[in-house]
Amino acid sequence: MSSILQAQNVEKYYGNKGNLTRALAGVSFSVEEGEYVGVMGASGSGKTTLLNCISTIDTVTAGHIHIDGRDITEMGRKSLASFRREKLGFIFQDFNLLDTLTAYENIALALTIRKRPPREINARVKEAAEMLGISDVLRRYPYQMSGGQKQRVAGARALITNPALILADEPTGALDSKSARALLESFRRLVREKKATILMVTHDAFAAGHCDRILFIRDGRLFHQLPRGRDTGKQFFDKIIEVVSLLGGETNDVN
Amino acid sequence: MSIRLALGNVRKSLRDYLIYFMTLSFGVCIFYAFNSIDSQQAVMEMTGSQMAALRLISRIMNTFSVFVSVILAFLILYANGFLIKRRKKEFGLYIILGMEKWMTARILLFETLFVGLLSLFAGLFLGVFLSQGMAVVTARLLGAGIGSFSFVFSFSALVKTMGYFGLAFVLALLFNIEMVRRQKLIDLLYAAKKNESFKPPRPGLSILIFILSLCCIGLSYKLILNNGLISSQGILTVCTVLGGAGTFLFFFSLSGFFLKLVQQNRGLYLKGLNMFVLRQIAGKINTAYVTMTLVCLMLFVSICTLSSGMGLADALAAELRGNTPFDATFFVRASDESPESAYAGVDLLAIARERGFDPGEGTYAAVRAYAADSPVALLAEGAEKTVYPEFMKLSDFNKVLELQGIDPIFLGADEYALNSGVRNERWQGMLAAYEEGGALELAGKRLRAAADGLYAYTTEVSSIKDYTIVAVVPDELLSDAPIKRDILHMNYPPGDGDCEKRCVSALLGFAPEGFEGSLETKARMMEYSHSTTTTIAYLAIYLGVVSLLMAATVLAIGQLSEAGDNVDRYGLLRKIGVEDRMIDTALFAQILICFGVPALPALAHAAVGIRAASKFVDIFGEMNILGSSLVAAFGIVVIYCAYFFATYAGSKRIVNKEYAHQRRIMENE
Ligand SMILES: Nc1ncnc2c1ncn2[C@@H]1O[C@H](COP(=O)(O)OP(=O)(O)O)[C@@H](O)[C@H]1O
Ligand SMILES: [Mg+2]
């Protein structure tokens, strides 16, 4: 196994001289290929900031981030855009599907904007839909789907390009528990069958329970890491709850 | 406080809503310019009748302006509505922050006021400049000279423009305040959220309707082309209804049909952002087919009026050239009360000299027209039987030709020739009869048609088209024929500007006792025709430009509000890794197609309409529709493109703003 993602002493400051917020205070960790990693922490602890820095949407103040062997903190704006397109897949809390396109088209869009030949698109969309269990809603428009289905369509869109790393910021945040479970199970399947690498921010211990490893963040620092090891689901879940209570503060974000 | 806020807002709006200002200023500008025609006389050197013509034109434009002002007021309200819709959330925020509703209304009041004043002044400024240029054009159209340069400014047009537009702004103001007063906070805050539910088109049905729409349009084309513009009221109504309904159904079904069509082509559909753009447009047309139909029809009106109006003006001017072979024609004939047989002829030359004008100063031709001794002249059997020609001696006719610098014609002793200034259907009948060797009986003698003896010379200065047919026969045959009228054609000596005046004062309105006299001069006809030409051309341009403005504004604002609704969609594309360039291209394509979709059917309609109209206008004279159409098309394209690019720039701003806003926060901090 090689590491897909390496963060070294990542720092991020917001604001100006008079009023400085330290959102990340030197975070270091790495994610291996095919790993399913969760990020947990209280509201305002810096989870989204971390994810934004990794996803190249935001820039770091100090430190380095290597993705698939390349240091994204050293890249120019142009190459960042193409890097994001080639290497990364995104899943957002609020789905972010285009309301004017069908599920099929929403997924296919990820390929067409990467200028893939049209003939290979159909098969790959079908395959991705199969993987996430949404084959029978492909012809529907977003307004005709449930939240869970929408999020799985977004998942299919993220994975169809075979990204080196899939980044998800609270993907279950807007879902009811049943839909959340279905989504998490399909993520699990992705990791198992497609060897996808996922970094998922969540405030939900149940969601975190699906991961291989959890990173806990407090006040912009890596507070603790919890690998699943040989634990059963129940054992792992209990451990997570334990750390969460150690973290203090309420973990449930407003969002 | 509210003034400062409002000023700041306006400054922002200025950049954001280019279209709003364009339309307002453009409208004010046109309105002022066409209402200030009266004052253009300041720079012109005009005769009394030219002055009268100018006043008439000015009056017609003023009347028409009432109609235009209603349209412009509608445009202002429409654009204003768009402005407000985009700003609802902001006002919601003011209220949330604890501002009283009346305070918010006051901000809005100041804002509308500033916007109104600003565009009013910009428009007036432009309008004043436009009317300087227009003065030159008017002078040329009227055939008047340009005097010393002075500034054209019409105070009354200024007051009128301010009055009308002030009223429109007050309406907009009331509308805005009422909006704030009645809105619930929750609606204000969530106004930015999509409120139109997306409705995907139904392909199966739309293909059927699409075909039906094409049939309707095709049928109406066929009807109008086969029957022409002056067909029966019934056919015209059927055409209009068919064309209108066809156009409506066309837009109604277009998105579904088009989508289906492109979806069949996977290679095209699944390429880049094509899918997205197509869906955007389909969604747009699908919800806005009524607007699209209206825009299409307005464009149609605009193209037709601009090109036909200018063509008609052209045709009139061309006809005039043909109608005035001499400087003046004076004739005397028996009055209607006294029978023709009582007329024994007069010496026009002597009369003219007696009254103080000597045609001999220049060149002249005094000729005589005779009536037939038998009232009906028959041509060959089966042809036109009711041609009542005037007869003229060969030598007289050749005198008329000579004065025009045309070579004389020749006739054998038993031959005749025919001349008619107008070639129309009647001419066809004559031609056929003539070719069959149609004979003419005169003074008991049978005359043969001379070979190549059909002529189409204009033989006198006349304000109406000369439908008279002249039969030219050997001199001796008319020695005993009854005289119909005496005619004096005159050309003034070159360079003598005074001649016309003296000729007119000597002969206009004069007739020897018991007879009728008529003087028509080239100069007088020019003036008359110039005023008609100018009126038609200006009316056409006024109407054409206003409807073009309307179409372009409605389209542009539709697109801009669309762009506002689309911020989320484009933002999302960015999030999933679409490059800026690709997004700009998609936006460009989307707006281009939205501008093109109503323009294409409008062009087709206009092409057919103009064809039908050119047949109609033909009655007035040959019409060079192509030339004027090209000029009109150029003008239309320029304005339309200006709106297109302004819309693209505006949409790009709106779509990029949110993103840029985010970036700015990131980079600054
Ligand atoms: N754009 C920003 N400007 C200033 N401060 C910010 C910005 N984004 C986040 N922060 C601050 O950084 C810290 C971490 O925020 P965030 O990463 O969003 O937390 P989380 O996602 O864990 O709730 C918070 O204190 C937050 O206020
Ligand atoms: Mg967050």
Fold and architecture overview:
The complex is a heterodimer of chains A (255) and B (669). Chain A has helices spanning 47-54, 77-87, 103-112, 118-132, 147-159, 177-194, 205-208, 233-247; strands spanning 3-16, 19-32, 36-41, 62-67, 70-71, 88-91, 165-169, 198-201, 213-218, 221-227. With 255 residues, chain A is of the alpha/beta class. Chain A has one domain: Rossmann fold (3-Layer(aba) Sandwich), CATH 3.40.50. In chain A, helix 3 (103-112) crosses helix 4, helix 3 packs parallel to helix 5 and helix 5 runs parallel beside helix 6 (177-194). The two termini of chain A are 35 Å apart. Chain B is built from 18 helices and eleven strands. The longest helix of chain B has 54 residues, at 522-575. Chain B is elongated, with a radius of gyration of 34 Å. Chains A and B meet through strand 1, helix 2, helix 3 and helix 4 of A and helix 9, helix 10 and helix 16 of B. Residues 14-15, 21, 23, 41, 43-49, 253 of chain A line the site of adenosine-5'-diphosphate (ADP).
In short:
The complex is a heterodimer of chains A (255) and B (669). By secondary structure, chain A is an alpha/beta fold. Chain A has one domain: 3-Layer(aba) Sandwich (Rossmann fold), CATH 3.40.50.300.
Q: What is the total tally of β strands of chain A? A: 10
Which range best describes the helical content of chain A: under 10%, 10-25%, 25-40%, 40-55%, 55-70% or over 70%? 25-40%
The total of helices of chain B stands at 18
How confident is the prediction overall: mean pLDDT of chain B?
A: 78
Largest sheet of chain B: 5 strands, mixed
Q: Residue share in helices of chain B?
A: 55-70%
| Global shape of chain B | elongated
Hey, roughly how much beta strand do the residues of chain B contain?
A: 5-15%
Q: In oligomeric terms, what are we looking at?
A: heterodimer
CATH architecture of chain A: 3-Layer(aba) Sandwich
> How many H/I helical runs of chain A?
8
Bound small-molecule species: adenosine-5'-diphosphate, magnesium ion
- Estimate the mean pLDDT confidence of chain A: 86
